[in-house]
Amino acid sequence: MEELTPNAFFDLEKFSHAALFEECRFVWEALIQMEAYLKKASLGGIECAVPSAATLVHPESIAIGKGTVIEEGSYLRGPCLIGAGCTIRQGAYLRGPVILGDGCVIGHASEVKHTIALNEAHVAHFNYVGDSILGNGVNLGAGFICSNLRFDKAPVVVVIRGKRIETGCKKLGLIAGDGSHLGCNGVSNPGTLLGKQAVAFPCLNFGGFHGAHALIAKGGKRR
Predict the structure, then answer these.
(1) pTM for the complete prediction?
(2) In the chain, what are the domain boundaries?
C-alpha cells in the first residue's frame, strides 16, 4: 500500500536519519528499527552547553548537535540523538530511544519516548508523544496527547479502506505527515495515521487513517 510507505508521509531528503526508513514497507516499521539503528550510531558527542541544572542520564548514549539549547530543569535519558538548533525547554522529559531532527522544540511539561521527530517538529506545551513519528514541521497544540496503548493491550491494528493491517506493535501512537497541525487539548488514539498537511481541530478524540490534506473536525472529516 503506497499510502502507508514512509514517502507518503515524509520528505526525507534533508533528514539526517533517513536511513531509518530505507527498508520500511510500512512507515511504523522505523520505530521497530530504532534500537538497532541507535546501537550503530555515534553517541556521546554533545556539541552544545548543558547547564548543571539539566539532567542527562547515560550521557554516553546521548548526542546533541550544535546550536541546540538545553534549558535548566530538562531531563534526558539516553539513548537520544538530538539534531542541531533544537530547543529542549525547562520541564521537558526525553525518555529514549528518541531521535530528533534539526530545529525541533520539546517544551515545558512535555514527555517524548520511543519517538522519531523530523526537522522543525514542535512538541511545545504539555504534550505526551510516545511510540510516534512526527514529520517535518509538525506542530502539536498545547495539551495534545498521542495515546499509544489499547485498553485491552492487544497489538495495534491499522484499518484503511476496510482492510485491517496488523502492525505487530503493542504500542503505537501517532504517525503525522509533514506539515500536519494538531489542535490544542486533542487526543489521537493508538495507531492514528495522518497524511501530509493534515489538520485536526482542537478538543477532538480521533483515530484511524486520514490522508494528505485531511481536515478533521467535530462530527467527522470536512475534506
Answers:
(1) 0.97
(2) 2-221
